[in-house]
Amino acid sequence: MKHRQTDAPPVAAAKAAFSGATAYRFEADPRAPSRKTKPRDRRRPDPLAAFFDTEVVPMLEGAPGLRPVAIFEEMRRRHPDLADGVRRTMERRIRAWRALHGVDRDVIFRQSHEPGRMGLSDFTDLADLAVTVARAPLEHRLYHFRLVYSGFEHAHVILGGESYVALAEGLQNALWAVGGAPREHRSDSLSAAFRNLDAAAQEDLTVRYGALCAHYGMEPTRNNRGVAHENGSIESSHGHMKNAVRDALLMRGSGDFSDLDAYRRFIDEIVSRHNARRAKAIEAERATLRSLPNLRTCDYEETLVTVTSSGGFLLKRVFYTVPSRLIGHRVRVRLYDDRLDLFIGSTALVTLRRGRPATAGKHGHVVDYRHVIHALRRKPMALLGLVYRDQLFPRDAYRHTFDRLTERLPERAACRLMVDLLALAHDRGCEAELAQVLAADLAADRLPDMTTLRARFSPDPAALPTVVVHLTPLVAYEALLSNDIGEAA
User: Fold this and answer.
1) I need a surface site. Which of 143, 276, 310, 403 has the fewest CB within 10 A?
2) Distance of CA 294 to CAs 165, 176, 453, Å?
3) CA gap 35, 62 in Å, rounded
4) Residue range 84-130, pLDDT digits in tens
């Protein structure tokens, strides 16, 4: 256009490096080619024209949260001739209408984080990973801790629910692993930490959780109930953690572990690899964390129970057996997520595996046959109707053997033989080896022979020789104190 002020169209076009024909065409119509294209008209009639404005729009205005698929199904009910292929068209039309006339949506505000300020805790369910321990399904959760600034993570396998003891144990393990405590600890509305009873109690911390945070100098906070993105720095990490565990299980080739400790080491290795990639940021944040106290605070619940004449006690809808010499005593129990520690006064007695209530409101049972085998020897028929009989057997081979015995033998003989087998496993310390023999007998469809088994798992403790040690009487030492020896000395 600058050259056109002084030159003819062919000359101006040549100076602008395009053809003269283009110059004459531009002289006739200066619009760009994209402006000359006419909008394409509809090739087919609008399938929603008859009812979108009159029926769909009032539904969107009256119920903004209504799903497009629900609206489509309602329109199909009202208009049976509506084709299935119109669903996507309706979804796009509804999406466009909401962009122009819909309600305002919540906005997520990205935050900048300073080192040492905030740590986050949450629990996530790993049931969909199908992890097994000794080929038994493992029902568990993962306690997950994360420092917002550096991304330091810690994970702890939890066997129960979101309890205070699980939170206290996992949080303290994380703080001692990183070597310091942030100024603020944030969680969602964990039932382990907050009492979500009513609106007046939404900000009410439990006494134990408040004491736990105070012990480490942290301020306890939480996000609003039901607003997960306010805890997004750890909520998004849940997905990454699950994917990392899933991938590691696939590369491992099996989701079965020999014991719980092996699975926990597996999780620790995955988390350690993640932390190693962020080592520089973690070291920078570690310098800003609060110093840890000299000792950990308690991460257990403590209660007193009385051992009943049944040889155990009931705690949180689970019956636990203990050595019968404790019947009638009041025992102090420290309840952890995965175990119980029993004390009389300050004397430690025994550690029991923690059980969980059964489904349908029934009590759970944690039974050790060693605690009751001496009583069963005197009352073998008690085995027949025992409430916790299935939990009494230490391995599946014993339980299947008893089923076979009750089919083949009279009840009294079956109970007597089964008690003898349990007593043999206890007295000779051959529980695992005896289970293998019983499994072989079941496969061969034969009953166990106690005479053969006693000979195989010998020696019999009752047949061991008695060793008599003769002690020198103390009076014999008086000769060393006689006057003659004293004078000679």
Assistant:
1) 276
2) 20, 11, 55
3) 40
4) 889 999 999 999 999 999 888 877 777 778 899 999 988 888 888 88
Rounded Cα distance between 286 and 283, Å, is 5
Domain with CATH 3.30.420.10 in the chain: 118-286
CB 371 within 8 A of CB 324: yes
Please give the order of strands across the beta sheet that includes 330-335: 301-306, 330-335, 339-344, 347-353
pLDDT tens digits, one per residue of 138-174: 888 899 999 999 999 999 999 877 788 888 999 999 9
CA angle 409, 413, 419 (to 5 degrees): 120
Q: What phi and psi, each to the nearest 5 degrees, are found at residue 122? A: -165, 165
* 3-state SS class at 134: coil
| Cα–Cα dist 108/229, whole Å | 8
Query: Which residues in the chain land under pLDDT 50?
Result: 195-205, 228, 488-489
DSSP letter, residue 55: I
Q: How far is CA 171 from the centre of its chain?
A: 14
In the numeric block, the tokens 């595996």 are attached to: 353
Domain at 118-286: CATH code: 3.30.420.10
Q: 3, 16 in Cβ contact below 8 A?
A: yes
pLDDT digits (tens, 9 = 90+) for 349-383: 999 999 888 776 788 899 999 999 999 999 999 99
pTM of the full structure: 0.66
Question: Exposed/middle/buried for 53, CB within 10 Å: 0-12, 13-18, 19+?
Answer: exposed
In one-letter notation, the amino acid at residue 189 is S
Q: Show contacts of 136-139: CB within 8 Å, 24+ apart.
A: 138/260, 138/263
Q: Which residue has tokens 């489509």?
A: 72
